[in-house]
Amino acid sequence: MYLELIDEFAAKGRYCFSFNEIAEKLDASPVAIKSALNRLKKKGELAVPYQEFYVILPPEHRVRGCLPPQQFIPHLMHHLGEVYYTGLLSAAEFHGAAHHRPQVFQVVVAKARRPIECGQIRVEFIFRKNAAVIPTEPRNTTAGIIQISTPEATALDLIGYVRHCAGLDNVATVLAELVEKIDIRQLAEVAALSPVAGHSALVISLNYWGKTTKPMCLLILYRAYISCRLPWFRDVISREQRKTHDGRYL
């Protein structure tokens, strides 16, 4: 009975469901339903990345013990009724700006949450109070649509949350690949939403990529990072913005 219902979900392309959803479809006590679901979990046919939230594991994902996070995070956040976006290094990977796949899938949320560990899958939640207003764009996955931060928002998040991104050196490496996709006008708009408005000093750094060495870019990034509260940086940013004609940095 339980397995047939789960197979029905999978046949419709649904690989996530909540306890309440399945309880509404079955004429059984909550204890009996949980026991049956736990048996399927022990067999490796289900995983539970969050309390009373289940994911169906096709054979190809059973070794890892969970679905890839991009396949269940949108459904989980919808289930929780919370705003989210895929950010930082995980967003950079979607934009083709990551040398290596991040060890942890990074999700920015407006409410503090503990990380998820499910089988070999790890999800880190980064708290950002104004996550709801950060520009995002949809991306298709095999299980639906996931929201990721735009290249401009990703760049600013990488600077603003360096400690979540394996340090400034790694951020510089990622930004060097991300810079071609950044629109300077959109970057200026997103910078106004940053926790520290002066993080828009990143604009100055991006204008140097391709014109100098990585160590010099790192120095520029570092100076921008530690000087982000200085008013004169905003004046320089304004001048740099007026210099661009096509809206992009070379």
The radius of gyration over CA amounts to 21 Å
The total count of strands amounts to 9
The description of the largest β-sheet is:
4 strands, mixed
Through-space gap between termini: 60 Å
What share of residues is helical?
40-55%
Helix-strand string: HEHHEEHEHEEEEEHHHHHH
Mean pLDDT: 80
User: Total domains, how many?
Assistant: 2
Provide the low-confidence segments as ranges. 226-250
User: Biggest sheet: strands side by side, in what order?
Assistant: 4-5-7-6
What is the percentage of strand-forming residues? 15-25%
Shape: elongated
How many DSSP H or I helices?
A: 11
Q: Determine the structural class based on helices, strands and strand pairing.
A: alpha+beta
Explain what this protein looks like in three dimensions.
- The chain has 250 residues and is an alpha+beta fold.
- It has two domains: 2-61, Arc Repressor Mutant, subunit A, CATH 1.10.10; 69-243, no CATH class.
- 44% of the residues lie in helices and 17% in strands.
- It is built from eleven helices and nine strands.
- It has helices at residues 2-11, 19-25, 30-42, 69-80, 88-94, 151-160, 167-178, 184-191, 202-206, 214-226, 231-243; strands spanning 16-18, 46-50, 53-56, 84-86, 105-109, 116-118, 121-127, 136-141, 144-149.
- The strands form three sheets. The protein has a four-stranded mixed β-sheet. A three-stranded antiparallel β-sheet has the order 1-3-2, sandwiched between helices.
- Strand 8 and strand 9 (144-149) form a beta hairpin.
- Helix 5 packs antiparallel against helix 6 (151-160).
- The protein starts with a helix and ends in a 7-residue tail after the last helix.
- The relative contact order is 0.10.
- The model is unreliable at 226-250 (pLDDT under 50).
